[in-house]
Specification:
76% of the residues lie in helices and 0% in strands. By secondary structure, it is an all-alpha fold. The longest helix has 42 residues.
Length: 146
């Protein structure tokens, strides 16, 4: 992977230097000059597009992975500070508690998933932890505002 990254850097550095002295040329002139130097311009364009596409995907995936790690860390922190044994609750107990929270705080809460029955037990537990934290935060805000 390190070699591939270094090759990409060398390629783009060389391309940048070449393009710097051709700024006043048209696309056609530039393509002709490259072809005269023996460069497969169609292959070059395909390679650049491929590298850019790959890097954009990596950046998107990296952002998603970081967000998921932060979410898991936050959930772990919420579960620890709540001091409740969420894992000890049955699926039915988790669903009942979520429904109770939605019923009593429905205007303040908005769920990403409306079909709770289709959620996995882990997703239900995480949803319950998040809802409990939101209700606790809302209560603290209400008390601070009084």
């Amino acid at each position: 992977m390190e070699k591939k990254l270094e090759d990409a850097r060398v390629f783009f550095d060389s391309l940048e230097k070449f393009l710097a002295h051709t700024a006043d040329q048209s696309t056609e002139e530039l393509e002709l000059e490259l072809q005269e130097e023996g460069v497969d311009t169609h292959g070059l364009v395909s390679r650049v597009k491929s590298i850019v596409h790959e890097k954009l995907n990596e950046a998107r995936l990296h952002w998603q992975k970081e967000a998921e790690e932060e979410r898991r860390s936050a959930l772990a922190g919420l579960a620890a500070t709540a001091g409740k044994a969420w894992n000890a609750l049955s699926r039915a107990e988790i669903l009942a508690r979520i429904q109770e929270l939605i019923g009593s705080h429905g205007q303040e809460l908005s769920l990403e998933y409306r079909n709770l029955e289709a959620m996995t037990e882990d997703d239900l537990s995480n949803t319950l932890i998040e809802l409990e934290a939101l209700v606790a935060a809302a209560s603290e805000n209400d008390q601070a505002g009084e």
